[in-house]
Write a structure and sequence with these properties.
transcription regulation; cytoplasm; mainly alpha; CCR4-NOT transcription complex subunit 11; 267 residues
Length: 267
């Protein structure tokens, strides 16, 4: 269910007030219960609240449910910008760091306005890398919000202190090319770690894929002028010489040499 603001359901609220002659509490509860996929027939919310023991026996185990409903309705009336959050979405956001979500679950999340949710409560800094590895496409949407939060430094440190993977490279690239501001120090450390990750892998297909991904990552940042060549030329040159046999690395070396010549870098 997509998050809805009070303004989005205001017309329905007014209709309940005028056409059905309901008081504000009843009209708001009608909307709330409908959004909650209620199966309470045609009983009014006031009927339910006043006769909760007989009409809602299942709630006997949760005696605060009616009070919770009243509180949410009160907030809905008083705050025109209030957003009704879906508990199922909150659960999926928490699960995203522990398991691979299904296509249906990903689609459900994609339809939500995730910025309305307290994402830092569902995804701790030490879980950000699990999120990226398990659910990369969801991470493309969520990580930018995390890096704009008041815990951004903790998330950045977690990214720097983890193994560099193809998924994490793609997420960081997405962040950088979509104007999320990261410090030059973070970018430099991350690129250095990326290059080092290639050296540490054993020879084989996995290492080749990592080298190619790092090559594309660095080349794209250079072409989009996100990083200055003068700060990276020595590292890039050494990286290219080590892996020149792999496709794409020679192109990066030529680009680096051309950029260096244009900027008149002296080494």
């Amino acid at each position: 269910m997509a998050a809805k603001t009070f303004s989005e359901i205001y017309q329905q609220f007014v209709s309940n007030l005028e056409a059905k002659k309901q008081d504000p509490f009843t009209a708001s509860c009608s909307i709330w219960l409908r959004l909650q996929d209620s199966i309470l027939d045609n009983r009014t919310p006031q009927d339910i609240c006043q006769n909760s023991d007989s009409l809602l026996p299942a709630l006997e185990e949760i005696p605060n449910s009616i009070d919770t409903l009243r509180l949410k309705v009160a907030r809905l009336i008083d705050d025109p910008n209030i957003v009704i959050l879906d508990d199922n979405i909150s659960l999926l956001l928490s699960d995203a760091c522990t398991r691979i979500l299904t296509l249906k679950e990903n689609e459900k999340l994609r339809m939500e306005s995730l910025s309305n949710y307290p994402l830092t409560e569902y995804i701790a800094p030490n879980q950000i890398n699990r999120l990226i590895d398990l659910n990369q496409f969801l991470a493309l949407d969520i990580v930018p919000y995390l890096l704009r939060s008041n815990k951004s430094q903790l998330y950045l440190e977690a990214l720097l202190n983890s193994n560099i993977t193809i998924h994490s490279l793609e997420v960081i690239h997405h962040i950088l090319v979509n104007n999320v501001q990261l410090s030059p120090e973070f970018i430099h450390y991350y690129i250095s770690n990326s290059i080092r990750s290639c050296d540490e892998l054993e020879d084989g297909p996995v290492k080749d894929r990592q080298v190619k991904q790092v090559t594309r990552f660095i080349q794209s940042l250079l072409e989009k002028q996100i990083i200055p060549m003068k700060d990276y030329f020595v590292e890039i040159q050494s990286f290219c010489i080590s892996f020149m046999k792999l496709k794409g690395v020679a192109n990066l070396f030529r680009l680096a040499s051309q950029e260096a010549q244009q900027q008149k870098i002296n080494f």
